[in-house]
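pinned: reference chain
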Amino acid sequence: MPSLEDELFPSTPGKFKMDRSHTMNRQFHRCFASTSTMFLWALFLIALTASYLSFQSFVDSGSRYFSASWGGIQLEKQVRSSAQVRRSGGMAVLVTGAAGFVGTHVSLALKKRGDGVVGLDNFNTYYDPSLKKARKSLLNRHSIFVVEGDVNDAKLLAKLFDVVAFTHVMHLAAQAGVRYAMENPQSYVHSNIAGLVTLLEACKSANPQPAIVWASSSSVYGLNEKAPFSEADRTDQPASLYAATKKAGEEITHTYNHIYGLSITGLRFFTVYGPWGRPDMAYFSFTRNILQGKPITIYRGKNRVDLARDFTFIDDIVKGCLGSLDTATKSTGSGGKKRGPAQYRIFNLGNTSPVTVPELVSILERHLKVKAKKNIVEMPGNGDVPFTHANISYAQREFGYKPTTDLQTGLKKFVRWYLSYYGYNRKAVN
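pinned: its structure tokens
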């Protein structure tokens, strides 16, 4: 088969009518043929380059369909299936941080009652990713699909909203932990501020706009000394960068509510604990160290005052999350434009019964039947606060929030899960 060059510029003499007797003509034609060849090859290369750039532009514009965080048609089918609503009046919910502690429990509760649920999680290494993968497996067994991706991935979010018309977003993805902020402050800005803004941008542009419920924190109360903490109390004295990013989140969400008509509800969680919890939390690390015979560090506040926390069991938090979703009204914007005032709320979700850390340890000792080796030290200036105590009257009025699990009962459930998950034999422990 002749080459492209052969077809365009054949080299056989008979194909060109040249007068052999005229050297000048021959040289002219050779020059002309050579110049034409170069010209046409240049056109060909230009066309090839244009085609490549056009294709590259197509790939870039559609990268959310084929990126590492997205897997094409098959993944799209899994997302649609997971988002399918199976009850009358149900909702389709995007749960960010779905493989996290609270995210897993909320996703399971929504799915159990017939709502559509799609999870999103980046499976970062702040704590053992294998625990997050185990939670993901648990969700998969209940037909909840979790997309591996980051809330800062605007293209991925846009694709998810293209595939599913989410009625609600439960935004639980965040960089957690008070003390870790002193080691890696950038991660808090990346997740808790930039990630929140990226998600809000996706929600404001979605049609229809979803109602948003998101996790703030009791940490926003910072150095507030008035107890119990009420939603109307001042929150302009954060004691940690984590608290500051959550407070910034409240201001940012208020802005998007005001400008774009997004229905937004913020939840200030108070020290959530329970099965499938976070290994960086005190009750979790205490349990691990007690079982391993290692000492635990217990901090004391000023004047040797014991620290106290309003420990709230995960099941009670889930009830508060679902109550917030159920009472959230529709967003009023469309295509990024506000049509009217939209709902904006902030709720405390706590237990209203603070317990000292030494009492927490005593309860764990009873359930584990192992005595803890205690190392009591003064609280360092690392962002922790001496106590937390929630006033939950607003949530009670709005959607009947009523915590029912005391610390004794909740820790018993946690210890049972911990021993089972990590393969402890009770007789060996005893």
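why pinned: The longest strand covers residues 116-121. Confidence is low (pLDDT under 50) at residues 1-37, 39-44, 47-69.
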